[in-house]
From TrEMBL:
Protein name (Swiss-Prot/TrEMBL): Aldouronate transport system substrate-binding protein
PROSITE patterns linked to this entry: PROKAR_LIPOPROTEIN
Signal sequence extent: 1-23
Keywords, sorted A to Z: Signal
The UniProt record lists the keyword Signal: yes
Annotated family: Belongs to the bacterial solute-binding protein 1 family.
InterPro entries: Bact_solute-bd_prot1
Length: 554
């Protein structure tokens, strides 16, 4: 969170100056007129000129998650032929992506379509992006999406099933400047993945149902497995000093009854770590630490010591659908090659805490999204809206290509229905073509992790028991979130003080959490520390600005 926040914050000043230039000089009326004029000029420059084959060029920028897609690869050519366009696409490494986008915004040279990345507080609307929106750089897509029953969101085979809440999450000042690419699974990081083989081997098959039972269960099973396996088996995979990490947060929710930001009984915005009940969560972690069942040097960020997929821990708080494993435990192993043979994955149902179940709401249900340049001509916008919102119904075979690539280029189809990618030529082609990642810019069907992960074709299919448990988990998490209405209350709200001061204000919070868990400070020191923050002028300003922003959205 801090790394991304610092990127955005560091570039805010430069982008603000650039946006000011885009808007022109003089009074606000003159600035608006200049911005409008500049947009009109650019529309002529970014129109819909076509090549000799009648194809226009669409420029795109998306995130490369470390795969290094090749230029002019087979997937790119497939999409160009399907949609009858030329794609000028840049895949930028994820580590440099935010800075690249922000620099292009500042320079006034954004592509036609830009993938927008999510910042640490769960919002896609970060300061530099919203400044550019205010200057007219990006398109408000509302008129294209909603048009008295005839808009894309109202007629598209995928989008028409999305709730109003989904579109509310996409709004900034009542406009829609980001286009979601899919609706995610609810409460993703609510799965307590466990080593079922160890549960069976040491007689711990009765599953815990409360946070207190879970603590005792983890301590006892960790000790039994450590003795029986002849090596240290930790209770939890946990490393680093970020106590708001998704691999701990659901446990904190169980004690506090909230996620990152909530509205307290006084109507004030409250950060989870400053909830008076957060100390109960820290005590729960401290009990594990004192029992010697979490890495004693967790703060040093050694990710291998307690790694669950390496067989080094009993449990791992992660996504409720990421423990998929083939019925034979081998064809789709889930665990690392270094893990012992016979590792079996399972997932506990969310356990109950004093204030809530250990169910963590998503930052946002928008899986990924794109923004569109306001400088595109209407003809180009029509093409963009068609190709970036394609569906199986309009383009048969679209869904399969999105997921698996092109048959005999990226996989071969076996008799049992398995799409086999083991040949090295397929592996190379898949990496070059960025197979499976185009869904972060193109529309995809709503995520169905049970089908995609557990109900694979052929030998990779999970056991019936695992499929049933995955269905139970999905139902439980969905129903719990619907019943509680819990969400990150500052989603898409704006606060200048938050943008400028939050990193400084909270810089020592996780250090203090670490010191508390390790017994270096006590409850009095923790409470005094928290009071100093919540009583500060900056924290109170943040609360007020979030309130004002929320009022402006109603």
């Amino acid at each position: 969170m801090k790394k991304k926040f610092k990127k955005h914050a560091a570039l805010t000043m430069a982008a603000a100056m650039a946006v000011s230039c885009l808007a022109g000089c003089g009074g606000s009326d003159d600035a608006d007129a200049a911005a409008k004029k500049g947009t009109e000029i650019k529309k002529e420059e970014k129109g819909s000129s076509k090549d000799s084959n009648g194809r226009m060029t669409i420029s795109v920028m998306g995130i490369d998650w470390g795969y290094g897609p090749a230029q002019d690869n087979e997937m790119e050519k497939y999409w160009e032929d399907l949609f009858e366009v030329n794609l000028d696409i840049q895949w930028i490494n994820w580590e440099d992506y935010d800075q690249k986008v922000n620099t292009m915004i500042a320079a006034g040279s954004i592509p036609d379509v830009v993938q927008i990345s999510k910042e640490g507080n769960g919002s896609y609307y970060y300061p530099i992006f919203t400044q550019a929106i205010d200057a007219g750089v990006f398109l408000d897509m509302t008129p294209y999406l909603f048009d008295n029953g005839n808009g894309i969101a109202e007629t598209n085979a995928v989008m028409k099933n999305w709730s109003g809440d989904m579109w509310d999450q996409a709004k900034y000042n009542e406009g829609i400047y980001i286009m979601p690419r899919s609706n995610t699974e609810k409460g993703q990081y609510s799965g307590i993945e466990v080593r079922r083989d160890l549960m069976k081997k040491y007689g711990f098959e009765e599953e815990p149902t409360t946070m207190e039972e879970l603590k005792t269960w983890l301590i006892d099973l960790s000790n039994a497995a450590t003795e029986g396996e002849g090596k240290k088996i930790y209770a939890l995979e946990y490393f680093g000093d970020n106590f708001m990490d998704t691999h701990l947060k659901a446990f904190a929710t169980a004690f506090t009854g909230q996620t990152d930001w909530a509205i307290d009984e006084n109507g004030e915005y409250q950060y989870m770590q400053f909830n008076e009940k957060y100390i109960d969560f820290l005590n729960w972690v401290k009990d594990l630490y004192d029992a010697g069942v979490i890495d004693p040097e967790f703060a040093l960020n050694n990710s291998d010591t307690s790694k669950w997929k390496a067989g080094n821990s009993i449990a791992y708080l992660a996504t409720w659908y990421n423990w998929n494993q083939s019925a034979d435990l081998v064809s789709d192993k889930n665990f690392d090659e270094s893990a012992p043979e016979g590792c079996e994955a399972w997932c506990l149902k969310p356990v109950k805490g004093p204030e809530a179940y250990a169910v963590s709401p998503n930052y946002t249900d928008i899986d990924s999204c794109i923004a569109i340049s306001a400088d595109c001509s209407e003809e180009k916008l029509e093409k963009i809206m068609d190709m970036f919102n394609a569906t199986e119904e309009k383009y048969p075979g679209y869904n399969d290509v999105m997921k698996y690539g092109i048959q005999d280029v990226h996989y071969t189809l076996l008799d049992d229905g398995t799409k086999d990618t083991t040949d090295e030529k397929y592996k190379k082609a898949r990496q070059d073509g960025y197979v499976g990642a185009w869904n972060q810019i193109f529309l995809k069907t709503d995520v169905d992790q049970i089908t995609d992960k557990f109900m694979k074709d052929g030998a990779k299919r999970a056991s019936d028991e695992s499929i049933q448990r995955a269905k139970e988990l999905k139902e439980f998490v969905t129903n719990d979130l619907q019943a509680t209405g819990m969400k990150n209350e500052i989603q898409n709200l704006q606060s200048e003080t938050y943008n400028n001061q939050w990193n400084v204000l909270t810089d020592d919070v996780n250090t203090m959490c670490t010191q508390y868990v390790m017994g270096q400070i006590g409850e009095t020191e923790w409470e005094t520390f928290v009071k100093g923050i919540v009583d500060s002028a900056d924290y109170k300003a943040i609360q007020k600005e979030f309130k004002d922003s929320a009022k402006g959205r109603k």
